[in-house]
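STRUCTURE:
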């Protein structure tokens, strides 16, 4: 019986990145005294009140997300930068962002930032785990926090470039918000992304170079077939120019292999007359 209980606890915690709550442990059959012994021995380490990790070693970002969610309750979801990171279009968050329904007002925890939302049930993704906001709602939450147009364009271009959503779906979600900061600027950004400016640098080039200097309109995400494979050019100016523009930040040239790959790509274009 004891072995079976240990297996149930291990499976439950593993599904939550090693995190378990006092209430969950009681529900599966562990007594309060048994929980106390585990915390006193160091086998279970407290993260927040009545929230523990059963794994040793440093707490991972994912475990931190689960700990915040389990502390906040079953109606809480990861949101903002944390949700963007979970869905693959954001950097690891400096603080865990957790949204809870109005009018709940949880006190802040070390490393956790709480947000309150009136429409959280509608903005919650129906199936993903850990629970989080829908991608379009995550993008809009980050837009709300933007200080500049460049700030607001970053989550839009990242999510669309990763093909996790589309400008049309973001626009539909924005229409459902009666109050939305940067609404007019967001509409312009979505229009640019629809034209093919799928990355932050691509949109900057479109605005600050192509439009600002009256250049011809380039073809964005232009497909070229070479050796049976499709290559995508950030911007391509066809007849009579045959000019390719590639827009890569320092991350795209962080190794010798990256630089050699780009050199081979550019040489192949040159040999093809571009």
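SEQUENCE:
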């Amino acid at each position: 019986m004891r072995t079976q209980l240990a297996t149930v606890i291990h499976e439950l915690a593993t599904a939550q990145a090693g995190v378990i709550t006092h209430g969950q442990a009681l529900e599966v059959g562990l007594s309060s005294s048994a929980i106390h012994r585990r915390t006193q021995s160091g086998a279970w380490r407290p993260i927040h009140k009545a929230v523990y990790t059963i794994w040793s070693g440093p707490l991972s970002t994912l475990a931190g997300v689960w700990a915040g969610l389990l502390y906040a309750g079953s109606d809480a979801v990861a949101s903002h930068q944390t949700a963007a990171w979970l869905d693959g279009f954001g950097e690891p968050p400096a603080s865990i962002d957790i949204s809870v329904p109005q009018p709940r007002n949880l006190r802040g925890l070390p490393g956790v930032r709480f947000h309150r939302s009136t429409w959280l049930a509608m903005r919650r993704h129906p199936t993903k785990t850990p629970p989080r906001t829908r991608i379009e709602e995550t993008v809009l939450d980050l837009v709300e926090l933007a200080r500049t147009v460049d700030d607001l364009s970053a989550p839009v271009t990242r999510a669309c470039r990763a093909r996790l959503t589309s400008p049309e779906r973001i626009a539909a979600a924005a229409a459902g918000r009666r109050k939305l900061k940067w609404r007019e600027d967001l509409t312009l950004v979505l229009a640019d992304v629809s034209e093919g400016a799928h990355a932050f640098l691509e949109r900057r080039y479109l605005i600050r170079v192509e439009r600002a200097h009256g250049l011809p309109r380039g073809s964005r995400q232009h497909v070229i077939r070479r050796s049976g494979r499709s290559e995508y050019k950030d911007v391509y100016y066809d007849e009579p120019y045959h000019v390719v523009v590639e827009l890569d930040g320092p991350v795209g040239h962080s190794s010798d292999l990256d630089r050699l790959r780009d050199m081979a790509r550019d040489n192949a274009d040159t040999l093809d007359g571009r």
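REMARK: The mean pLDDT is 92.
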